[in-house]
Write a structure and sequence with these properties.
The complex is a heterodimer of chains A (426) and B (319). Chain A is of the alpha/beta class and 426 residues long. Chain A has a single domain, classed as Metal-dependent hydrolases (TIM Barrel), CATH 3.20.20.140. In chain A, 28% of the residues lie in helices and 25% in strands. In chain A, strands 1, 2, 3, 4, 5, 16, 17 and 18 form an eight-stranded mixed beta sheet that branches. Chain A has an eight-stranded parallel beta sheet with strand order 6-7-8-9-10-13-14-15, sandwiched between helices. In chain A, strands 11-12 form a two-stranded parallel sheet. The two termini of chain A are 25 Å apart. Chain B has 319 residues and is α/β, with parallel strands linked by helices. Chain B folds into two domains: 158 residues, Aspartate/ornithine carbamoyltransferase (Rossmann fold, 3-Layer(aba) Sandwich); 148 residues, Aspartate/ornithine carbamoyltransferase (Rossmann fold, 3-Layer(aba) Sandwich), CATH 3.40.50.1370. In chain B, the strands form two sheets. Chain B has a five-stranded parallel beta sheet with strand order 7-6-5-8-9. A four-stranded parallel beta sheet of chain B has the order 2-1-3-4, sandwiched between helices. The longest helix of chain B has 19 residues. Classes of the chains: A alpha/beta (426), B alpha/beta (319). Chains A and B meet through α6 of A and α4 of B.
Amino acid sequence: MKIALVNGRLLDPENETLNPGGVWIADGRIVSVGAAPADFTPERELDVRGAVIAPGLIDLSVHLREPGQEHKGTIASETAAAVKGGVTTLCSSPETDPVADTPAVIELVRERAQAAARAKLVPVGALTRNLDGESLSEMYALRQAGCRVVGNGTRPLRHSLVWRRALEYAATYDLIVFVRPLDEWLAAGGCVHEGAVATRLGLPGIPASAETVAVAQILALVEEIDTRVHFSCLSTRRAAAMIAAAGADGLPVSCDVAAHQLHLSEADVIGFDPMVHVMPPLRTAADRDGLRRAVAEGTVTAVCSDHQPHEADAKLDAFPDTAPGISALETLLSLMIELTAEGVFTLPQAVARLTLGPARVLGLSTGRLRPGVPADLCVFDPEASWRVGESHWRSRGRNTPFWGRTLKGRVRCTLVDGRVVYMDPE
Amino acid sequence: MTSALQLDDSGRLRHFLTIEGLDRVWLERIMDTAASFGSVAEQKVKKVPLLRGKTVVNLFFEPSTRTRTTFELAAKRLSADVLNINVAVSATTKGESLIDTVRNLEAMSVDMFVVRHGASGAAHFIARHVAPHISVINAGDGRHAHPTQAMLDMFTIRRHKPDFSSLIVTIVGDILHSRVARSQIHALNTLGVAEVRVVAPRTLLPVAVESLGVRACHDLDEGLEDADVVIMLRLQKERMQGALLPSEHEFFRCFGLTRQRLRRAKPDCLVMHPGPINRGVEIASEVADGGHSVILEQVGHGIAVRMAVMALTMGAVQG
């Protein structure tokens, strides 16, 4: 199928530029960017009428919930939410039931994603068996099944020696290790940032050191064993600075933050709204602003959704007793665009952190507007707004603090391998 | 704002969840109303008919004797019917959720929930989800608030020292885990005391405690200097675990209130304790039973203050 996307504004994340032009696609790949190639007769022409044409978004942290927690989300429902949000590739968490610690579970998830025919999947394999934090998973088998990434999700590892061996073993098979840094002892029992708001509300706190201690521990190990490590979902500016410094020293490390961490802070917990119960917790306004700067400067190279859909009941309890997490795929792009309106970063910078940045973490060729790469594209109107709410919501989880809010940045059309997988109904 | 829930559009007290956000007029109104109920206990028939026909549910998810009993007596003296539900040993262990427990009771046409729960924010959660005619009174939620306890403490202080503006009040002990201390601090500052001090080792003080409007000390003698009111908090035995404190012995040595140490405070100072007391852990018997102690008086005032809060939230007396 030959497709032409014309009359757009091309967002090139590699050069962080925005220029008028189109994209021409044949056999699922981009054949030309900017001007039409000679002798190209499209079977389908999409006039995007001034919308931005960008690479499809790549989301490094998504809980699909299937298998095992289909009441929260299914691969079909959540990948539909993904493409509605412009996400064409997502990393699926191993925290399913059963956990993704065997090729069988990886195959199952991949097959169902293929059947759903929406976003592409990068399955994250479990770092330890049953995510127990003690015994290594069969990483060679996972690698054979196509896993490039392993991680232990939100579950802790028992102690530093397990970390060391897990990193070494993963390095043996050239696997990227995703780490959500949180020292379980310092975090124990906490549900919000340990600070003035926690003190006022009497909510058990998680100190910033729960994150920085865990980052320091992993960095020290990486220094010895040279494993490729990516830190997911940071919440403190200090951790971001530590990882940036380690990267500048030549360690093979990178990091991301969830988009909600760039918008919300501990102050949003006043009122006990369970929708802002997230893990890692919302930190101080200074952390939020520091993370914004780190994203703008590019020391934090990727922004993810940390999508965690829940059924309504999971949030219907006293704040500490609710499940943490936000259903975030559909608001990811908009939350970043909102920050461009505030002057935090430019639109090309924002999109680069959602495309090129995560593509580099995963070693993918996508995330770029370039001839020859798979035609995973997101066409959006950065000025058009939409209301987060019932109409057209795709995720099974409606747990978002942004529910009811009007956000800028509306996805018009999403393509995966040159195939239209989402079209704005309006 | 955590308190926005408890006042309705016309400024009436619908629920009583936290002291925070209530102004001085409201706190004085509660104390004045409590004072008007003071005589009920002296009557031959210790009842007034203000809540006749109303049903009050004591919904306790944590064990409590004193608080539950005084709420029960308060409700009965207002002529309400009282239902005591101890959920720690019933529904939730069978897997019923908090919201289901509340909805089931709501279906029985109750008028008020008095809630104690181990999670901070639980009373707010219930207040947000109950039918509009039901009032919720927070009888202690996690480490967050215990507003009726704070009000009975203020009531007790006012009877002895009516001018709050000159008072130095020192709260000693486990501030970190104390909902009582948080509510007391808000109440004392709202009533305009000269100074609130908190005294504890750093492991028992929450971070940024000064942001609540207190001066933090780690030395009891310093904290007691010229204090008008000394409030001792109960130290739970389990604080000896988890590396918060080395021993009860060392805690008493550093932070236990003895007659000797009390000499630092004003000669007419009051000694208070929300109970139940641990003799020899946070307070010496000679002080608990001594002339400065108003600990038993606090208990008696608990009933009048809880009657006041119930009557005000139910609109049975003019707010």
